[in-house]
Design goal:
The chain has 173 residues and is mainly α. The chain is built from eight helices and two strands. It has a two-stranded antiparallel ribbon with strand order 1-2. The longest helix has 33 residues.
């Protein structure tokens, strides 16, 4: 195995480990699940540095690790919609290298959509009586994902710029 592949494998492992630790540093926690944290920053930064394939790999591995450590699974489809899929799609933040805010926003919209679908199909019973389940899922998931997306975008772009200043882009090639 060449030196660059070994370096990339190590960086993927470090990114997954960082995301795992950051998921426990909660800025805000909602009563029925969902929280604001910076867990997605390592996934986004790897996507910005290496592109969507590596970003999706990091996100997918993190989603599986999260299931092992802290999950609530009631159905195989809900498992997919709440764990590997939302974090894999965050890797798509590496799609448009020159439009980082747009890329991160797009990736978070896809994550939001996965959680909305899971909420409608599997957690609609928690909606207050008379409340549309779609509206409830949009509001509930948006209450933590929108602030997290904004914080993650700010921190990820800042961190990416710091890495660029220190010559990290040459290592990522």
């Amino acid at each position: 195995m060449d030196k660059n592949k070994t370096r990339l494998i190590a960086q993927v492992g470090v990114a997954v480990a960082l995301a795992t630790v950051l998921q426990y540093v909660k800025i805000m926690q909602l009563p029925q699940g969902g929280s604001v944290s910076l867990q997605s920053v390592p996934i986004i930064v790897m996507a910005l540095l290496y592109g969507p394939k590596v970003g999706m790999l990091v996100g997918g591995i993190f989603g599986l690790v999260e299931v092992l450590l802290d999950s609530y699974v009631i159905h195989p489809i809900q498992f997919l919609l709440d764990y590997p899929v939302p974090f894999m799609v965050l890797g798509l933040a590496g799609l448009w290298a020159n439009k980082k805010v747009l890329s991160i926003g797009f990736a978070y919209c896809l994550r939001y959509l996965a959680h909305i679908l899971s909420g409608v199909v599997f957690f609609g019973e928690y909606a207050p009586a008379g409340t549309n389940v779609w509206l409830y899922s949009i509001m509930y998931n948006g209450s933590y994902l929108i602030p997290e997306a904004v914080l993650t975008a700010i921190v990820s772009i800042w961190l990416w710029r710091q890495l660029q200043k220190r010559g990290f882009s040459e290592l990522a090639q």
